[in-house]
Amino acid sequence: MSSNYILGNRVDSLTLAAAVARVASFIADGSPHHIVTMNAEIAYLAYKDPGLQAVINRAHMVTADGSGVVWAARKLGTPLPERVTGIDLVQALAAEGARRGWRFYLYGAAPGVAAAAAAKLQEEHPGLVIAGTTHGYLGPDAMPALLAEIKRARPHILLVGLGAPKQEYWIATHLEELQVPVAMGVGGSFDVLAGVVRRAPAWVQRLNLEWLYRVVKEPKRVKRALALPKFMLAVLHEARCRR
């Protein structure tokens, strides 16, 4: 598995199928692994935050979650085979996990959302084992009980939907204690899976305008979307420096 660097952040050169195969190898190995699904917003945050960048670069797999990262890799002369979004990887892992008997635990999102997302995944992938779900609105006092519950559930894959960069820091902090073979930050994927948020139509995704669709549907995301032009300018500057 080869890796590229965008604004100092590692991203692995992977197709969706290769990412699933890599996760299967992590599970077979049994030791804890951290997966980051990195979009342009996270990449720009990490560019400005050395602590977050260190977490990303220590992760065992980093996928290109979004067209912005794929564009950046191409501009920097290190093209990626395709984007591998968090939600697409979750769906692919659920399909594979239903066949292999992998156990999943979903932590994050508003009360009831993770449970609804889990139910939807089981409906779409018969035989999928859900070891547990917990919403993401827990205070520090509740954390020891959550960690104990996850350890008792013994999932193969822990999906954490706390939003970036909180989910990346949370996984990095607790990965060794939990000893989960695979822990992956999935952002707002639970909301989409549960039907709380609608994903952009396929034609919008093909045009690489999924980010704009989400801003139109959720105007509160405008401030977050402003990271995209800043990311693009930083990438163009890095491309000039590499020449």
Any chance you could write out the topology, listing elements then pairs?
Layout: E1 3-6, E2 9-12, H1 16-29, E3 34-38, H2 40-48, H3 50-58, E4 61-64, H4 67-75, H5 86-100, E5 103-108, H6 113-124, E6 129-134, H7 143-153, E7 157-161, H8 166-178, E8 182-185, H9 189-194, H10 202-206, H11 210-217, H12 222-225, H13 227-242
Parallel strand pairs: 3-4, 3-8, 5-6, 5-7, 7-8
Antiparallel strand pairs: 1-2
DSSP, total strands: 8
Radius of gyration: 17 Å
> How large is the count of helical segments?
13
First CA to last CA: what distance?
25 Å
- Going across the biggest sheet, name each strand in turn: 4-3-8-7-5-6
Largest sheet properties:
6 strands, parallel
| Low-confidence regions | none
User: Class by helix and strand content?
Assistant: alpha/beta
Provide the succession of SSEs: EEHEHHEHHEHEHEHEHHHHH
> What is the molecular shape?
globular
Any idea how many domains?
A: 1
> What portion of residues is helical?
40-55%
Instruction: Let me know the average pLDDT.
Output: 91
Beta-strand percentage? 15-25%
Written account of the structure:
The protein has 243 residues and is α/β, with parallel strands linked by helices. The protein has one domain (3-97, 157-242). The protein has 13 helices and eight strands. Strands 4-3-8-7-5-6 form a six-stranded parallel β-sheet, with helices on both faces. Strand 7, helix 8 and strand 8 form a beta-alpha-beta unit. Helix 1 (16-29) packs across helix 5, helix 2 crosses helix 3 (50-58) and helix 2 (40-48) packs across helix 13 (227-242). 42% of the residues are buried. The mean pLDDT is 91. Belongs to the glycosyltransferase 26 family. TagA/TarA subfamily. It catalyses: UDP-N-acetyl-alpha-D-mannosamine + N-acetyl-alpha-D-glucosaminyl-di-trans,octa-cis-undecaprenyl diphosphate = N-acetyl-beta-D-mannosaminyl-(1->4)-N-acetyl-alpha-D-glucosaminyl di-trans,octa-cis-undecaprenyl diphosphate + UDP + H(+).
